[in-house]
Design goal:
Number of helices: 3
Helix content: under 10%
Distance between the termini: 65 Å
Largest sheet: 9 strands, antiparallel
Radius of gyration: 22 Å
Shape: globular
Strand content: 35-45%
Structural class: mainly beta
Oligomer: single chain
Order of helices and strands: EEEEEEEEEEHEEHEEEEHEEEEEE
Length: 333
């Protein structure tokens, strides 16, 4: 046995992953560090609670684009690892950090929902050993989050929201020279692009308006040159009534039909527009009165493109209806 410095011939050589690469298993040797994450074979792993994954990447002095895929399923509950599962109806409010900085936030609501996070790392943010850490934290944990925001969502989001969440995939690639995106995206595409997060998408191919059943949604900092990265964005909000045909003919269906009729009446009177109650920066707290204009049955919400911190939009209650995001439009600076 020979040695060189502190190493020996028996030391395991850890080969980094080389971009572009999709990391879809927790068994790869480049996944060197885990905390609160149980490794998987067909997924990277499942979080017991807030935790992280550290992967050795051969960046070679280049910037990297990182895309993280998270999801919830029937096992995504608090206490799943001990068999003492506790299922709750509240959405999960999750921070995704990397290299010590908050990148984006996601809301996950219900089962079989998927969320995507995307961010760029500069060469200066990647250490010489190539270790890139992706942290997934509940909104109540960690520093750099406004106590005002935490108070605003207390009781409205699930405690220990990361418990049981799947880390399905991490993609590392070089950022393209220029991204070409449309000036307008429908509600579902806004979530797929990670501009907003409203509870996660069940069908990643879905297009059209996005229901905002949690009464809130996150607006995220997005990638350079992508939709919403410059200037301001306008989000068109509306409402819809729940369909009554799928509800059995009981008092619940009667109630639903009454709600549908009341909502239809409001639409006829052009008074069915939703209202935004507050907009809070995850880092800095309340941003003051939001810029919103009501026209008939829709509300146009105008926001600055987030740069250093995601924004949380809280909606006022919508009696007899579900608020929806119809589409988003990028405004000139």
């Amino acid at each position: 046995m020979s040695s060189s410095g502190s190493g020996t011939d028996l030391d395991q050589v850890i080969l980094p992953v080389i971009p572009p690469v999709h990391v879809t298993s927790g068994q790869v040797s480049a996944l060197q560090v885990t905390d609160g994450l149980r490794r998987g074979s067909q997924i990277v792993g499942r979080f017991e609670s807030s935790g992280l994954a550290g992967i050795k990447v051969s960046a070679q002095g280049r910037a990297l684009r990182v895309q993280v895929s998270l999801s919830a399923d029937e096992r995504s509950v608090s206490g799943w690892q001990s068999g003492r599962a506790e299922v709750g109806p509240l959405p999960r409010f999750i921070q995704v950090r990397s290299q010590g900085r908050l990148r984006q936030c996601v809301l996950l609501r219900g089962k079989r929902t998927h969320a995507r996070v995307a961010f760029d790392l500069t060469p200066e943010e990647i250490p010489d050993d190539g270790l890139i850490c992706v942290e997934v934290l509940d909104i109540a944990e960690g520093d750099g989050v406004s106590e005002e925001l935490r108070a605003a969502v207390s009781g409205r989001v699930a405690p220990d929201g990361v418990a049981g969440v799947r880390l399905d995939k991490i993609v590392f690639e070089e950022p393209p020279a220029v991204d070409y995106d449309p000036d307008t995206l429908d509600g579902s595409r806004c979530e797929l692009y990670s501009l907003i997060s409203a509870g996660g998408l069940v069908n990643l191919n879905r297009q059209g308006p996005r229901a905002l059943r949690s009464g809130m949604f996150v607006v995220n900092p997005v990638l350079k040159d992508r939709f919403g990265s410059n200037g301001r964005i306008a989000l068109r909000l509306g409402t819809k009534a729940e369909a009554v045909s799928v509800i059995p003919a009981t008092w619940r269906r009667v109630n639903s039909e009454l709600r549908w009729l009341r909502h239809a009446t409001r639409r006829l009177l052009h008074s069915a527009a939703p209202s935004v109650a507050r907009v809070l920066s995850v880092r800095d707290g309340d941003m003051g009165a939001p810029v919103q204009v009501t026209r008939g049955n829709v509300t146009e919400l105008e926001l600055p493109s987030p740069s250093g911190s995601p924004l949380l939009v809280l909606l006022a209650p919508c009696p007899d209806a579900v608020p929806i995001l119809e589409y988003g439009t990028a405004l000139e600076p």
